[in-house]
Amino acid sequence: MLEWLLGFMALGVVTGLVAGLFGIGGGGLMVPVLTLLFAAQGLPEAHLVHLALGTSMAAIVPTAVASLRAHHGHKAVLWPVVARMAPGVLVGTFAATFLAAWLTPKPLAIFFSVFMAYVALQMILNRRPEPSRQLPGTPGLVGVASGIGGVSALVAIGGGTLTVPFLTWCNVRLPVAIGTSAAVGLPIAVAGAIGYMVNGWGVPGLPAHTLGYVYWPAVLAIASMSYLTAPVGARLAHRLPVTWLKRLFALLLVGLAIEMLRTVI
């Protein structure tokens, strides 16, 4: 058990650094690595991807809290927008966990890999949508937030890869878009974690120390380290060539997603 805990802690170190450097929750890194680690542990093949998704969502919560506090301290969170988006992301994220639980590992892994390829392409090109409109009203924001939450639950991310482009497209300045996205990421992570716990409740064949599809030894080990290293990553973001690092990380995401597909399919 000790070697696996050390592996989860190492993943937490890298996840925190990545979250701080690039302003993302780290699910794109955690899900494929957790899938590989769980497979190496001999956990049931039928539950590998579900456990990776649920565990990743739960591990994102502390990182999201730390990120939210930092951005709030810089007055970079549009709280009225967060309040209007929160109901949508809560419903969309929670509902999508039921879809994820219904799907078998193969289509889940394929969807995750395709989405990560899209994220990687965006990171390599470093494109931002040109501001072309204002934020929609409450019904429009709730609808968009529901979609963001749904996709986030299926790939276990905090939603930043979708929320930030949407907000910048709506003429929100980039630093504020990132801060607001960090605040929106907390209800996504909480709703996703609860959803995967509920949907995995009573499922036969799950390993010890799980609550539904959340494997708690991994959550605690990852979160304990990512909470510490995320601020380090944020400081390094001001000293390192983040654009080139982001492109290298994008290639790593693609490689991990392909390896995940090989493991599951």
TrEMBL record:
Quick one: a GO cellular component term? plasma membrane
| Organism domain of life | Bacteria
The answer to keyword Transmembrane helix applying to this record is yes
Which key words tag this protein in UniProt? Answer: Cell membrane, Membrane, Transmembrane, Transmembrane helix
TM regions (residue ranges): 6-39, 51-71, 77-101, 108-125, 145-167, 174-198, 213-232, 244-264
- Membrane topology note: Multi-pass membrane protein
Q: Pfam families this protein is in?
A: TauE (PF01925)
Its annotated compartments are: Cell membrane; Membrane
Tell me which family the UniProt entry assigns to this protein: Belongs to the 4-toluene sulfonate uptake permease (TSUP) (TC 2.A.102) family.
Show the PANTHER family listed in the entry: MEMBRANE TRANSPORTER PROTEIN HI_0806-RELATED (PTHR43483)
What is the name listed in the Swiss-Prot or TrEMBL entry for this protein? Probable membrane transporter protein
This chain's source organism reads: Marinimicrobium koreense
